Amino acid sequence: MVNALGKIGIWQGAPALNPGLAREVEQLGYGAIWVGGSPDGELKIVEDLLDATERIVVATGIVNMWSDDAATVGASWRRISAKHPGRFLLGVGIGHPEATKVYQKPYDKIVEYLDGLDEAGVPVSARVLAALGPKVLKLSGERAAGAHPYLTTPEHTRQAREILGPDALLVPEHKVVFDTDPERARAIGRPKVNNPYLHLTNYVSNLKRLGWSDADIADGGSDALIDALVLHGTAAEIAAGITAHLDAGADQVCIQVLGEDPLPGYRAVAEVLLS
């Protein structure tokens, strides 16, 4: 069983994470640090962050199933969880077809990998699945503690909660830019959305299920799409967008602050939502 995550976490690529940042976000009141960028199966970054902190949960967002086998990842989970019980949530996912030449029958691969985690001793309650579409969302509620959707909107969160039911964990990621000028904010957010996500089948398919058109997705994304996927404005305006996920059924929202230094953004959100 993993400790309570709290309502707000952070999502940060592994290269930008370090013990000092982890200690500060813990002190600010965040409930979890989601390690992005497909960390390797040894998961030393997770162990280092847990070693540097006292209570915050560290989660992976996500370990790619094609990169590291379930036995290796399971051994890492056992090692880290023995040292820091209740503080490590293992997020795993299939990635996307454009990323690997061996990608085939993704649903079968997910089921096979979860079987491997069972054999490796990783309990259902200590793992979540990267999930966007209905089939994998349903599996997330059956074979994992829940789902960790990436690049979504509150409408997706509402639909995901209906599929998962009331008890499964649901933790979407959402990008934010602290700038009240829409053009400047989009100039930061659009490249992060367009490359690579608007060129990847699973993300594009998900956006279309949510009602976004080919025109919205083309040419780097329409202003409306970018604004929906990358919150911008004042801390209060951004907090309202994050809260919309919670109102739609999310248990926690993990925010990804875009820009050279994310810490001022994390501090600003904490002042509004965590104080």
In brief, what are we looking at here?
With 275 residues, this protein is an alpha/beta fold.
Assign the CATH class: Alpha Beta
Taking pLDDT < 50 over at least 5 consecutive residues as the criterion, the unreliable ranges are none
* CATH structural architecture: Alpha-Beta Barrel
Number of domains: 1
**Beta-strand content estimate:** 15-25%
Query: In angstroms, what separates the terminal alpha carbons?
Result: 27 Å
Number of strands: 11
Topology-level CATH name = TIM Barrel
CATH H level: which superfamily? Luciferase-like domain
InterPro entries: Bact_Lucif_Oxidored, Lucif-like_OxRdatse_MSMEG_4141, Luciferase-like_sf
Organism: Amycolatopsis acidicola
Protein name: LLM class F420-dependent oxidoreductase
GO molecular function: oxidoreductase activity, acting on paired donors, with incorporation or reduction of molecular oxygen
What would the keywords be for this entry?
275 residues, alpha/beta, TIM Barrel, eleven-stranded parallel β-sheet, 45% helix, globular, Bact_Lucif_Oxidored
Question: Overview of this structure, please?
Answer:
One of its GO terms (molecular function) is oxidoreductase activity, acting on paired donors, with incorporation or reduction of molecular oxygen. InterPro entries: Bact_Lucif_Oxidored, Lucif-like_OxRdatse_MSMEG_4141, Luciferase-like_sf. This is LLM class F420-dependent oxidoreductase. The protein is α/β, with parallel strands linked by helices and 275 residues long. The chain has one domain (8-177, 232-273): TIM Barrel (Alpha-Beta Barrel). Helix content is 45%, strand content 16%. The chain contains twelve helices and eleven strands. It has helices spanning 19-28, 44-52, 70-83, 106-119, 134-143, 154-164, 182-194, 201-209, 214-217, 223-229, 235-247, 263-273; strands at 8-13, 32-36, 57-60, 63-64, 88-93, 127-129, 146-147, 169-170, 173-177, 230-232, 253-257. Strands 1, 2, 3, 4, 5, 6, 7, 8, 9, 10 and 11 form an eleven-stranded parallel β-sheet that branches. The chain is globular. The two termini are 27 Å apart. 47% of the residues are buried. The model has no long low-confidence stretch (mean pLDDT 95).
